[in-house]
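Let us work through a complete example step by step.
Step 1: write down the sequence.
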Amino acid sequence: MATGEGIHRDTGRQTPTAGAHIFSGQPNIFFVTVNAKNAIPWMAKATVQQSLTEIWSKEATAWRVGHYLLMPDHLHFFCAPHDLHFDVDTWVEFWKRQFSRRHLDQPWSWQRKSFHHRLRNRIEYEEKLAYVRENPLRKKLAEKPEEWPYQGRIHDLSW
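Step 2: predict the structure and record it as tokens.
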């Protein structure tokens, strides 16, 4: 079994669910995790952060990215649909491809599948956000959440 495949720790499911269920008339905010292939630690870099924020802001605009955080071997972010013609899986594949094209000179690779979970309410969102912000603390990469430099917010995804 390849690294990152199998049971997902947060949900207990065997593989990522396909697609994302969008419900009209209510917020549709998703929590997404994307891993580095073979858990190779290459993501916590200013160049990676800059490329991703540019791509999410200017090229991959079918979904809006809210808070994001890059760890050495994975990233977490919250997103919401902006253009319903693109499901979350298609959108993730698009921006990963755009990123890889920008960094052909690097050995960086993404794990094939990403994990996403539709958040049901504001409480669940706040719990996941706290989990994400504390990630560098659990790995002893920072002493306070605000000290971790590889995080930010592109769009305000409010309830």
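Step 3: interpret the result. The radius of gyration is 15 Å.
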